[in-house]
Amino acid sequence: MSQPDYLQLLDHLYDGLYFVDPQRKITFWNRTAEQITGFTADEVIGSHCYDNILNHVDADGNALCESGCPMAKAMDTNASIESEVYLRHKQGHRVPVAVRIRPLPGAEGQVLGGIELFQDLSEKTGVLLQLEELRQLALVDSLTGLANRNYFEREIEVHLQEQARYGWPFGLLFVDIDNFKQVNDNYGHEVGDRVLQMVARNLKHICRPFDVFGRWGGEEFIGLVRNIQGPEMKVIAERLRMLIENSQLQQGDGFVGVTVSVGATLARVGDTLSDLVKRADELMYRSKNKGKNCVTTDF
After folding, report:
1. 82 catalytic, yes or no?
2. What is the distance between the terminal CA atoms of the chain, rounded to a whole angstrom?
3. What is the pTM of this model?
4. Of 26, 124, 277, 280, which has the fewest Cβ atoms less than 10 A away?
């Protein structure tokens, strides 16, 4: 089989795939990699993986392309590595991916480069099927593709009833973009809409199959997190905040980034819809008053 035929087969893999040479310069970038990242082969080939194109971070927000690069470690140790990280999509949001990296050995044992396969984990959240169902019910926000306020109020009511009857725990996250008016004032409402969409994509990607995130209104978002206790709720809220902080929207020659203030609370027996939303909203404002870009809880 000729090399072009071989590379054509690699273009049809279900996983993203790229090769690097010994200096970690990218020499091949398949079509699935283009689909997962938004970056075309022409934009990537010839650059180095440490040029921070994908700006990988781990679940704690550590920048891996600058230090702790799995590709560099695999090539230095001549060992295979598997990991789950978040890459930055060309549109700015974070995409969770499972990466599998192997060094490419030469005839005499030297490392000739590296190969990375990466799988988009966001599909596993089941959120796409969920949103398609919601679209059919006209319960999706048209700008962000998230559940709208009408749907969310009904969903909270259902879960309050389930908690009262069965004791099933759930929590609410109230998320507000910091200094969003400045984004609109500095860049215009079109860029502001793209920032809202970037934040929404991050919420979709952190969403578990049984959680729901929606747009409450303006730059406010809300999340209903099922079967949760305080410590896990805190982890999800902090990860959400971290992913948004590490997301950037390309605008001209620069980037536009935002942070969010988050309030997190657990539903209590006897709560009404108004009680629960008001408590989460007040906690979010406490995050604003503490300097923004943080999470405040009451547990």
Report:
1. no
2. 62
3. 0.77
4. 124
Q: Does residue 284 contact residue 290 with C-beta atoms inside 8 Å?
A: no
81 phi/psi in degrees, rounded to 5: -135, 140
Reported CATH class of domain 3-120 = alpha beta
Calculate the CA 188 to chain-centre distance.
Answer: 24
Q: What are phi and psi of 210, to 5 degrees?
A: -105, 10
Task: Determine which one of 34, 219, 238, 245 is catalytic.
Answer: 219
User: 141: which 2 tokens?
Assistant: 């926000």
Domain ranges of the chain: 3-120, 124-297
Query: Could you identify the residue written with the tokens 């790229």?
Result: 18
- Average pLDDT of every residue of the chain: 91
Q: What confidence tens digit (pLDDT) does each residue in 145-179 have? A: 999 999 999 999 999 999 999 999 999 999 999 99
